[in-house]
Amino acid sequence: MEKRTAIIGGIMAVGIIAVVVFGIGCIEEKAPAEMTTLNIGYQPSTHQIAAMLASEKGWWGEDLAQFGIEKVTMKEFPSGPPEMHAMLAGDLDVAYVGVAPPIAAMYEGLDAKIVAGVQTQGSAIVIRPELADEYEGPLSLKGKSIATFPPGSIQHTILSKWLLDNGVDPKKDVDIKAMGPSDAATAIGAKTVDAVFLPSPTPTIIVEEGNGVIVEWSGSMWPDHACCCLAASGKMIREHPEMLKQIIKTHIRATDYEIAHPEEAAGIYAKWENANVPTIKHSIEATDMHWIHDPQLEVESGIEYAKVIYELNRERYEGKGIEMLEEKDMFDTSFYDVVTRER
Question: How much is the pTM?
Fold first, then answer.
């Protein structure tokens, strides 16, 4: 009898342990919190019209309602670095942003991945009209002041690499000033800088205002370089994978539409940014930009950006034990691959 009681007691003990372990497991594997608002970051550039177009057409709201999204908030930033500060703070779920800023932020601990392409090339060096005849390539920029986006941005990364590759020290031979697009355009107009390196449409706006001459497109500085991408937070990737697939589907739809209807895309941009429609149309026609959505087209450049950013910050990174990022650290193309197979 005692032996039987002991066996029953043992079975009950095992059962209790199993219940406790199962309960702990349930706590650890609990379903993600309900998400009713989606926060999308973007910048005032024709590079990222897809984000604005999908919002203007109502596609974000329509396509994401099935996942419980009641509100889509579009948050505008002057450039990529402050946009990535917002993502680091958890204020953005997805972001239309240059490929370099999320990579720079990943070195600082950003939990995110690049999940789709947005566009390639599309930035330009614009020099004050009275200095344009002096331009004969990168060496002629020695001693000049150049306004561009902050360190970690696509523009700062490309400009720094291009100068270094051509024997110009970006820290000693030129005066690179970190500015957003409107401030940089104002600065060259006021002649407080000699040149700017900015994404479209600002170069065309500066030219039409008579304040500069385009002397170099970024495609000649770095052929076929990746520019903007769609980045998703780690939380979005892990907790809302089906919604992320739909976000990529909507992005593809918007990209295909802007490629097929560039004039309408120009009108939407002009409406959102209170810009002149003919100027924006001219910018889209003049730029060497290409709208895309395949992230594979940005991987090679992304790996190179990771190297450039690391070299520019090697001492600090090595002091913190930070290693150079690899493709798997920066890109997750699996969602795009699934979506495009289903098309």
Answer: 0.88
Q: Give the residue numbers spanning the domain of 170.
A: 123-221
pLDDT digits (tens, 9 = 90+) for 48-80: 999 999 999 999 999 999 999 999 999 999 999
Question: Based on the domain organization, do 291 and 305 belong to the same domain?
Answer: yes
Q: What total of structural domains would you count in the chain?
A: 2
Cα–Cα distance, 259 to 166 (Å, whole number): 34
Report in angstroms the alpha-carbon separations of 79 from 58, 148, 169, 251, 266. 25, 10, 24, 20, 20
For residue 264, count CB atoms less than 10 angstroms from its CB and return exposed for 0-12, middle for 13-18, buried for 19 or more: middle
Structure tokens at 296: 């594979």
Contacts of 316 (CB under 8 A, 6+ apart): none
% of the chain with per-residue pLDDT over 70: 90
CA–CA distance, 176 with 195 (Å, rounded to integer): 10
CA–CA separation, 171 vs 313, rounded Å?
13
